[in-house]
Amino acid sequence: MWYSDGDHVETFSTSREQQQEDHRAKRSHHCPHCEKIFAFLSKLKIHVKIHTGENPYSCTDCGKRFTTSQSLTVHQRVHTGEKPYSCSECGKRFSQQIHLQIHQHVHTGVKPYSCTECGKRFSQQFHLQIHQHVHTGVKPYSCSDCGKTFSRLDTLKTHERIHTGNNPYSCSDCGKTFSRLDTFKIHERIHTGENPYSCTDCGKSFTTSGTLTIHQRVHTGEKPYSCSGCEKRFSQHIHLQKHKRLHTGEKPYCCSDCGKSFSQQNHFKSHQRIHTGEKPYSCSECGKSFIRLEILKCHQRIHTGEKPYSCSDCGKSFSQLGNLKTHQLIHKGEKPYSCSDCGKCFTTSTDVKVHKRAHTGEKPYYCSDCGKSFARLYTLKTHQCIHKGENPHQFSQTN
């Protein structure tokens, strides 16, 4: 229904919209403190308590106060242990409905919160906020003992156990204690033999995903860690740190027995066995023991006859890399070792030592049959053939 008065046209529908707008305006309640608008006066009254600090509802168990009776009811579940909200997928229960809704994202795969910097998505807003610290560099949590800062509160709490010595997680198998739950769970796999992370290239299994990632670089050839001093690249960060000590000259591992220092911990531990006499690596063929595994491996080639190092100039093979390098000096014509008495030069330090006996008259090798002494081991072995009735020409100087 409508009427016309010249160019002016008015409809009842327009009047109805105006009435609705007026009605909405009457229902709008403005907060005098922050100008927030509420449709219901009861909601405004609750909101105003935020500004006034009024908390009329008190917990009878701990005395904590709240602005609304609903907030008090939710809080009291901390004391009662009540969890009225249950997940229909897995049955897990929660004290608050919002916690159930967040949990359900695990089953649905929904990640509604997206990082504007890199596009990474998260199921919880809180996780997004923590992630954004990666881009901003913000580390709001500071250790009161050493001043170290962290981007996450849980990381700070774990760090503080270093100072307090608190290790709340204990292994029931060996009694070892841990400050972090994730480290404890990984440790337990030593006893259970569980290796849940498997390489798709070779099938080898690992206890942690991090160890698998490092292993996969064997197949991909990836070396993400680069030395700023010489640009040499490494597959593991720990290998880069060890390498850097070549440039800095740092030797953080010092022997308390003789004062000798080392750049790598494994070299330091091997050295200590000189003082302790410990030889943990034993040959299964002859029972001879060694302080280092690599020395045992070299020794075992005596039994196997393996000579993996070959000279590219003449094809001669050697059981040890050091012997190959010494041999290659013959082809290069290099003689880096010289006699301080006569200036004669030699390819190896051993040759110099043997030569110097000509000046000193030293003869350290004795024949047990006749007592005759010799400057060189080769000469002694040749001599001993006389007593044994053997042909001395069967020995070569390289034996």
From TrEMBL:
Positions of the UniProt region annotated as Disordered: 1-28
Sequence similarity: Belongs to the krueppel C2H2-type zinc-finger protein family.
Pfam family, one: zf-C2H2
Record's protein name: C2H2-type domain-containing protein
GO molecular function, one term: RNA polymerase II transcription regulatory region sequence-specific DNA binding
Record's function text: May be involved in transcriptional regulation.
InterPro entries in the record: Znf_C2H2_sf, Znf_C2H2_type
Domain C2H2-type: 29-56, 57-84, 85-112, 113-140, 141-168, 169-196, 197-224, 225-252, 253-280, 281-308, 309-336, 337-364, 365-392
Organism: Hucho hucho (huchen)
GO cellular component, one term: nucleus
Highest classification ranks of the organism: Eukaryota, Metazoa, Chordata, Craniata, Vertebrata
PROSITE patterns: ZINC_FINGER_C2H2_1, ZINC_FINGER_C2H2_2
Keywords carried by this UniProt record: DNA-binding, Metal-binding, Nucleus, Repeat, Transcription, Transcription regulation, Zinc, Zinc-finger
Compartmental location: Nucleus
Basic and acidic residues compositional bias, start-end: 1-10
